[in-house]
Structure formats: C-alpha cells, structure tokens
Amino acid sequence: MRRVLLIFSLALTGLLVGVLALREGSDTQSVQVRASVRSLLGPGDEAGFRRAEAPGEIRLPRDHGPHPDYRSEWWYFTGNLSGESGREFGFQLTFFRFALAPTAPASPSARSSSWASDQIYMAHFALTDASRDEHRVVERLARGSAGLAGARLEPFEVWLDDWVAQSTGVEFLPLQLSARDAASGMELVLELSPGKEPVRQGQDGLSQKGAGSGNASWYYSYTRLPAAGSLQVGGEQHAVSGFAWLDREWSTSSLDAGVQGWDWFSLQLDDGRDLMIYSLRQVDGQSAPQSAGSLVARNGNSRLLSLNDFELQPVQSWRSPATGVSWPLVWRLRLPQEAMELEVRPTVSDQEQDLSVRYWEGSVDVFAPGGQERLGRGYMELTGYQPPSANSLP
C-alpha cells in the first residue's frame, strides 16, 4: 500500500514548491511543511497523468524503473537485522518521487537550466536499535535534476544525494543499499540477494484503494530478500544479516476522500511464510472494503486476502510525549481460514516519525496472543492519527 508508505494536491504542492523555490545551486534540504496522507494520496488534479485502471500491466524488469507519467511512486525498503552479538536492529530506506506536472514534450519555451525539473524526490532513512530502545530517523528532499536525485532502469538505480539503492550487476538483484547521515550518527550498507519471486498485489498487480475507476495503484512486493552488510549507530559499527522487504507502488489517485489513513503490516514468519495486511481506515473508524493483503507460502506461492479473510484489532496504545498522538501499537491479527492468530508488538514504542508527513513506522515482533515465544519479525506502518486537540499537546 503505502505504503509503505505512503505518502503523499494542494498540501503536497506547498511542500514541493518549497523545495523548487530554493535558489539554483542549493543542496538537498529539509522543508518544514506537514501534509496529511488524505491530501497527498487522495483525489486531486489528475489531468494529464496516467491512472491505474486495468490489471495485468506490470512488466518486470521494466517497472523497477521510474514512472514519470504517474503522479507519485515509491521504492520502500524495510527489514530486520541481527548483529554477530545477537543485538537486533530494524531499518527503513525509502525513496519517493512526486510529479509537479505531467511530463510533456520539450518546447522552445521550456526552461534550459540544468536545475529545471517537474519531479521532486523525498527519502526517509531510519534505524531502530531494539537492544537500546532507540529509534533515529532523518528526511531529505531534492529536485530531480542536476544529479541531486533521480531514478533509472538500466542499470537500476534510485538515489537522493548519497542515499542510493542500485543493482550490482546486469540483473535487478542483487541490490546494494547505502545511506549515511553524520548528524544522527547513522550509516547503512547492505546487499540484498535474490529470495522469493515478486508478488503482484491485488488483482494481478492492480491494488484497488477506492470505489472509483482509477482509484488504485500498481503494487508488487519482494517479501523476503536475504540481507547482509554493516550498520553504524551511536558510534558503534555492527556486521549484520537478516531479511528485507521491498514494496514498489505507483499511482495517480488512490485513496477515496473518506479514508483518513491506514494500518499496514509486513510480517516474515519463522515458518517461512510472509504476510502483508493493510486496513484502510475510514473517518468513521471502520475498515474500507478495499482493505486487503496477501499470504506468501514458503515456496513463494501467494494468496490474495480480502477484508473478509482477516480480523484486525488494536489492543494496546502508546501516546507520544512529543506530539500527543495516541498510536495503537499492539495488535491481534486473525486469519480464520488459515487457523492463524498472531499478536504484533513493537520492538521500540517510540518509532514515531514526525517529518513532512507524520506517521509511525517501525520494527515489530510477532507472537501468539499473550505468548512469549517469538514467531517472526516484521514492520508496521500507521498513518492518519492525530492528537486529541492542539491545546492538549505537551
């Protein structure tokens, strides 16, 4: 979904214009504008953009690359890693592309500056240190010009400044992820190896998010990619290994106006199965009928899940001392047809990300309800939650 993310129209235009208004020659920037997911992914000015309307149009490896004829897209990497000493970490490295206007043929009146661009890139980099109960996150934004940020298919690469995801050979996989941020003391270098084949979410890759035609996205996932490399956090270097998850999604208009956010889960179970669930949360608190997911078997075979196939219930919340938002962080998840009942718990409560878009994104563990034996690891994303009132903020 997102998803992943995620993210992102008048409110979006304000954020992006802030980036483009930087004088030519400026570096990547943080822009202090917050938008809601409803304004960023909901209905807007769609004239001139393509829309996701018919299933079966995903083509790989072509669609690993960018889609500038759609309004937004993302490459969403998350995963859980273990150090040689048993210390456990979560990571997120995500790249978002947003179009200010539909791509048009060049004309004599077109801007000739190398800084001119109708594409904006945003990236989020986060590390969770479960052993130290710490979470760090940073955000960057840049125009898609002058080498600051961009994406290409051959060879595959998406980057923003020195944050990069790129193929290391002629095939899409293996991939190398690389990101560092001196101010926060974070660095990540990972190689992602081939694992299970990609899963086309929804109806052969068409993931319906709303009732109207075109209120959908193209969506596929790599649900279990072996990962190995190193990370640095808090001045300490760690050799790490584990599994990553990649979500690829692009669209022009996906969310219905009545959807205020979503609750999304990507779970890698120890028995070899992978589970993705998202609930589109309506303003009245109910799940929209387009809420869905998929269950991927150990051998890579996948089964589409509809809202009728799962039950999702929050059982415990945590209130952020920084924003006042109450986030439901412990969840019960049931799949009756699979005789599966799980409890999802965060590895660190404070994985709130108060960036251009406020959301909770972080590492989770999976247990049987009330149990202590871990059954798997994963990631959770929560969006659209707001503080009770502006006056009640700490």
- CATH homologous superfamily placement: AttH-like domain
Tell me about the largest β-sheet: 13 strands, antiparallel
Number of E strands: 23
Distance between the termini: 32 Å
What's the CATH first level? Mainly Beta
- Structural category is mainly beta
Low-confidence stretches are 3-14, 16-33, 36-43, 390-394
- What is the ordering of alpha helices and beta strands? HHEEEEEEEEEEEEEEEEEEEEEEE
The fold-level CATH name is AttH-like fold
Please tally the helical runs, counting DSSP H or I stretches of 4 or more residues: 2
Level-2 CATH architecture: Beta Barrel
Number of domains: 1
Shape: globular
Helix content: under 10%
Radius of gyration using CA atoms only = 20 Å
Give the SSE layout.
Elements: H1 10-20, H2 37-41, E1 72-83, E2 88-99, E3 119-129, E4 134-143, E5 149-152, E6 157-160, E7 163-167, E8 175-181, E9 186-192, E10 199-200, E11 206-208, E12 216-233, E13 236-251, E14 259-269, E15 274-282, E16 292-296, E17 302-306, E18 311-319, E19 326-335, E20 340-346, E21 352-354, E22 358-367, E23 374-383
Antiparallel strand pairs: 1-2, 1-13, 2-3, 3-4, 5-6, 6-7, 7-8, 8-9, 9-12, 10-12, 11-12, 12-13, 14-15, 14-23, 15-16, 16-17, 18-19, 19-20, 20-22, 21-22, 22-23
Report on this model:
- A hairpin with a 4-residue loop joins β19 and β20.
- The chain has helices at residues 10-20, 37-41, and strands spanning 72-83, 88-99, 119-129, 134-143, 149-152, 157-160, 163-167, 175-181, 186-192, 199-200, 206-208, 216-233, 236-251, 259-269, 274-282, 292-296, 302-306, 311-319, 326-335, 340-346, 352-354, 358-367, 374-383.
- It has one domain: AttH-like domain (AttH-like fold, Beta Barrel), CATH 2.40.370.10.
- It contains 2 helices and 23 strands.
- 4% of the residues lie in helices and 48% in strands.
- Strands 1, 2, 3, 4, 5, 6, 7, 8, 9, 10, 11, 12 and 13 form a 13-stranded antiparallel beta sheet that branches. Strands 14, 15, 16, 17, 18, 19, 20, 21, 22 and 23 form a 10-stranded antiparallel beta sheet that branches.
- It is globular and about 55 Å long.
- The chain has 394 residues and is mainly β.
- Mean pLDDT is 87; it is low at 3-14, 16-33, 36-43 and 390-394.
